[in-house]
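Before the break, one more example. Copy the sequence into your notebook; we will annotate it together after we see the structure.
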Amino acid sequence: RAVLESVWERSAELVSHHARTLREEIVPALNAEGIELVRWEDLDREEQKLQSQLEELESRAQAAGVPDRLR
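Here is what the structure looks like once it is written out:
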C-alpha cells in the first residue's frame, strides 16, 4: 500500500508540473509564434470537418508506413 501511495503522490506531482509547464511556458511560446491552441468545441463545423479529415489522412499515412518526414 505504501508503494502505491508513493507512486500516486509522485504521479500527481508530475501531472501538476506538466500542466504548469504547458500553461506557463509552452502555450505562451506557441502564442508568440502565432500558434493558438483551441478546444474542439471552439471550432466551427467546417473547422471540425477539416480537422477530422486531416486526422484521417494522417492515420492512413501512418498505417501505410509513410515515414514521418514525408507526411
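The mean pLDDT is 95. Helices lie at 2-32, 45-63. Try to locate both features in your own notes.
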